[in-house]
Specification:
With 226 residues, the protein is α+β, with helices and mostly antiparallel strands. It has helices spanning 2-12, 25-39, 50-67, 81-88, 90-107, 131-146, 177-193, 211-225, and strands spanning 72-78, 113-116, 121-126, 150-153, 156-158, 162-168, 199-201. The chain folds into 2 domains: 2-39, no CATH class; 50-225, Reverse transcriptase/Diguanylate cyclase domain (Alpha-Beta Plaits), CATH 3.30.70. The structure holds guanosine-5'-triphosphate (GTP).
């Protein structure tokens, strides 16, 4: 029975089961809420997972298009992470991922969303982040992670760094979350190529809007005028 499986999943994840009378409407709603929570989180770090992050990004794209406020998307990747796994083992790598996740989460505001979007990759969406603050926020994140000392085995302490790429949501175009992620990723590749342990942010927002995004603006304008 699917409900039994759902309860097993929740129990295994250490989720709290609803206190209401079993099988009552409130109890079933509690189980559904707990399942939703479980399916939106990354099991290792407890951060928002990729699926849920993509939904948060789409919501933010809509909000930016409506409000005209700017928002920053940061793509974050741990530097030379393969070497951590290869030298100290996968379990040590997992400890590093958890420590970085915790550090990133500490630096941001409650309204920001930090997600684990891949193995050693994170995404952060920062609503209402003015372009003049973007570089400062990215630098604060980079610095906080560089200060981490992760004990991966008794007496074995590792320091790690991250690279960050950032792109602002264009305020005047109804972009897509995918294109926004691609732009942040492009800056991340630049940060890696320029030596890692650094943040690269798009500087000229307008000039970097792709032809595809301009096409989407045209499509939206046409629809709106119909
Ligand atoms: N421990 C651990 N390792 C993971 C996990 N997911 C992915 N990886 C490993 O992360 C590593 C990613 O390495 P690469 O993408 O090659 O890059 P890198 O070594 O971080 O180097 P740069 O990104 O170029 O600085 C691979 O060795 C993956 O096996 C995970 O959940 N836990």
């Amino acid at each position: 029975m699917q409900l039994d499986l759902a309860l097993q999943l929740l129990q295994q994840a250490g989720a709290l089961l609803p206190e209401a009378e079993p099988y009552s409407e409130a109890w079933v709603q509690g189980v559904i809420d707990a399942l939703c929570d479980l399916s939106s989180k990354d099991a290792l770090t407890g951060l928002v997972n990729r699926r849920s992050f993509e939904m948060a990004l789409s919501r933010e794209v809509d909000r930016v298009a409506r409000s005209g406020e700017s928002a920053l998307l940061l793509a974050v990747d741990i530097d030379h992470f393969k070497a951590v796994n290869d030298t100290y083992g996968h379990a040590a790598g997992d400890l590093v991922i958890k420590a970085v996740a915790g550090a990133l989460n500490q630096v941001v505001r409650p309204m920001d969303t930090v997600a684990r979007v891949g193995g050693e990759e994170f995404g952060i969406v920062l609503p209402k982040c003015a372009p003049s603050f973007g570089a400062m926020v990215a630098e604060r994140l980079r610095e906080r992670v560089s200060e981490l000392r992760v004990e991966v085995a008794s007496g074995q302490i590792l320091a790690v760094t991250i690279s960050l790429g950032g792109a602002f949501a264009p305020q005047w175009v109804r972009s897509s979350s995918l294109l926004w992620m691609e732009r942040a990723d492009r800056q991340l590749y630049r940060a890696k190529a320029e030596g890692r342990n650094r943040a690269c942010l798009e500087s000229q927002i307008e000039s970097l809007v792709s032809a595809e995004e301009k096409g989407m603006l045209f499509a939206v304008t046409q629809q709106d005028s119909e």
